[in-house]
Amino acid sequence: MADPVAPTSPQPAPSGDFSAAVRKAGLLAWDSTGAEVDASLRGQLTVAFLGSASAGKDSAIRAVFGIDFGEISPIPGSTSSLKVIPLDAAGQVLLVNAPGFGDVRADVDQVARKVMDDLDVIVYVVNAEGGATIDERRDLDAIRNGYGGKPRPVLVCLNKIDLIRVKEREAFIAATLEQLGVARKDCVVAAFDPLPQLAAAPIGVAEVTMWIHDQLAVSGKQLLFSKHLRNKAQACEPIIHAAAKRASVAGAIPVPGADLVVVTAIQVKLIRDIAAVHDAEIDKEVALFIIGELLSGGMRSFVRWGAEALKAAGWIPGAQIAEAAILAVGAVVAGATTFGVGKAAIQYFQSGRSLDSGALRMVFDAAAWDYKRRGEAATV
């Protein structure tokens, strides 16, 4: 069956210089972006969930990755207190479930000890109902000081926050973080298995996903992490936001058209990343057709606004331009259109690749305008 988005037979590039330029830039970016995606999926990633038995580590793992830890056989070297499981057949991504960091390391064999020494990121789960303990502060200090010779990013999750009265939560959070010596930016308030009458779904999963993604971006392992998350659409959100930010920077180049090649490459890579998260193949013609349709095929409201805004700012041949205005408008257009492309790509894969181009343009327009509005609100 032919792909619903792609043309059913070879067709010429969409008419217009802009459409042709976008397609040319996309073709130039195709091979290099594919190599980038392949390279990012070849690494080794180890994520640990640490905390006491009552903290809710199993619930956290279930909410984030969608697996029941107890149903997967651990790797050799694990013990009853420390379990290490692979999330893929090749064992590239390992997940650790353990109590206090210092207590278990001496009790496992060399294989599991190496896993503990090579952790990429740690999620430390604290039972909010029980409050912080001296042992938890000791563990966090040991991890932050480079226990095993390697400092690690640590996210503290104050779990079961739904059991704390709403009017007491902020004071409780502040006091607990002070006891643990943790900055607010490295904490997520969560309820991974909330009481049904208080919340219909786990609380804090999106924030955990975003934090880990940002930490792993430093080592280039964020896509490997996102690929194994339970909620694929949610897994793509940090990827889209990061791409939109990069596009905004590229869009601020004060030379008309100088940003096109860079921004198009970012958008091609974004579609390929989203395909990888969904474990789906993406054909070159389909990817370029999606971008071409969204940016030029319909020339709907947002793209028209962008073109008019750039002209109003003086971005026309031979004109004296107001550089600050050009930079601002160019950044907004590049960031918002990239955000819209990402949102449309998510819907495309979530629908089983059944959305037609009209439906994709509706998603693109809504997302691009939303990005623009939120950007304006942030500057007020």
Could you characterize the architecture of this molecule?
The protein is of the alpha/beta class and 380 residues long. It folds into 2 domains: 17-41 and 231-379, no CATH class; 45-225, 3-Layer(aba) Sandwich (Rossmann fold), CATH 3.40.50.300. Helix content is 54%, strand content 8%. The protein is built from 14 helices and 6 strands. It has helices at residues 17-40, 57-65, 101-105, 110-117, 134-144, 166-180, 205-216, 222-226, 232-251, 260-277, 284-297, 301-312, 323-350, 357-379; strands at 45-50, 83-86, 93-98, 121-127, 154-159, 187-189. Helix 1 crosses helix 11 and helix 9 runs antiparallel to helix 13 (323-350). The radius of gyration is 23 Å and the shape is globular.
Strand coverage percent: 5-15%
Determine the fraction of residues in helical runs and give it as a percent range. Answer: 40-55%
Number of helices: 14
CATH topology of the largest domain: Rossmann fold
**Named CATH architecture of the largest domain:** 3-Layer(aba) Sandwich
Low-confidence stretches: 1-15, 317-321
User: What's the CATH class label of the largest domain?
Assistant: Alpha Beta
Q: What do the pLDDT scores average to?
A: 81
Rg estimate, integer Å: 23 Å
Largest sheet entry: 6 strands, mixed
The quaternary state of the protein chains shown equals: single chain
How do the strands line up in the largest sheet? 2-3-1-4-5-6
Which homologous superfamily in CATH is the superfamily of the largest domain?
P-loop containing nucleotide triphosphate hydrolases
Write down the secondary-structure element order: HEHEEHHEHEHEHHHHHHHH
Number of separate structural domains: 2
Class derived from helix and strand content = alpha/beta
Shape: globular
End-to-end CA span: 50 Å
Q: What is the number of E strands?
A: 6
